[in-house]
Specification:
The chain is α/β, with parallel strands linked by helices. It has nine helices and 14 strands. The longest helix is centred in the C-terminal third of the chain and has 16 residues, at 250-265. The chain is globular, with a radius of gyration of 18 Å.
């Protein structure tokens, strides 16, 4: 079973408009509302792939539907995130999230330890809500005996690598912010020096760079795709988790992650992917190439 953790879950609201023009009134063409947050998005993709998955974290009154889940309730409502999608891309508005008390945090840690006993892979994704300690991911990674994937940024990422997670997945901006290196290879090497066992960096049109202790690979999608990119990173993490769960090689993991992330851009809301595009991309992608270190 793959366990996903979302400490800062949200009610995701997606508006689709013809064109977003600041300072003007817009007529919304489509509206979507559902539970979100990075770990929940990862879980939805894994669930769509028919893999055994369970989502956990904090949730205050979120509609989780048929997604397998076991969340710790909050006394306050979860935050809202708003995504406005137009022909030029997507604009996001993210609330910070409700404050978590020390008692609620300890309740979750105890709950997480029980769930993680049955997991083959644990995925810890997203920002930390107010009240949760900055080393939250360090604490959680340190308590499990299975494979771990961490997808976060800033101070939370800096702390998390000290617990030696099996994979961390920053994007290019997050990698540069945490390490100070402009080169993705140098940034990934710095995170591994600080404790990460492997780094998968998402580099936009240049695809994914995966670096382990001995080798590195790179794989890019076949071309640019127009759509909603907000869930692409979460679909990428789902692909990594799926590969680790199956015991796949890194070139195979990259193929899955690139195909899923690209197919997610073609899905109207985060937490899903276009299945036809996914199958076509998997067949079309070349083998990952060895990258210079």
């Amino acid at each position: 079973m793959i366990l996903t953790v979302t400490l800062n879950a949200a009610l995701d609201i997606t508006y689709t408009v013809p064109s977003l023009v600041p300072g003007t009134t817009h007529r919304v063409q489509e509206v979507s509302e559902r539970a979100g947050g990075k770990g929940i998005n990862v879980a939805r993709v894994l669930h769509q792939l028919s893999l055994p998955v369970l989502a956990t974290g904090f949730a205050g009154g979120l509609p989780l539907g048929d997604l397998p889940h076991s969340f710790v309730p909050l006394s306050a409502s979860s935050r809202r995130t708003v995504t406005v999608v137009d022909d030029g891309g997507a604009t996001l508005l993210n609330e910070p999230g409700p404050a978590v008390s020390s008692a609620e945090w300890q309740r979750f840690v105890d709950h997480f330890r029980l769930l993680a006993r049955e997991a083959t892979v644990v995925v810890l994704s997203g920002s930390l809500p107010p009240g949760v300690p900055v080393d939250a991911y360090t604490q959680l990674v340190s308590t499990v005996d299975c494979l771990t994937v961490v997808d976060t940024s800033g101070v939370a990422l800096s702390h998390a690598v000290s617990a030696r997670p099996d994979v961390v997945k920053p994007n290019a901006d997050e990698l540069r912010e945490v390490t100070g290196h402009r080169s993705p290879q140098a940034g990934a090497a710095a995170l591994m020096h600080d404790g990460a066992r492997a780094v998968v960096a998402s580099l936009g049109p240049e695809g994914l760079l995966a670096m382990t202790g001995t080798e590195s690979w790179q794989l890019a999608p076949p071309g640019a795709l127009a759509g909603n990119p907000t869930g692409a990173g979460d679909a990428c993490v789902a692909g990594i988790a799926a590969g680790l769960h199956a015991g796949a090689t890194w070139p195979a993991i990259l193929r899955e992650a690139v195909a899923l992330s690209a197919a997610a851009v073609l899905h109207p809301v985060a937490g899903g992917y276009d299945p036809d595009a996914y199958e076509q991309l998997r067949a079309k992608l070349p083998d990952a190439r060895k990258a210079l270190r």
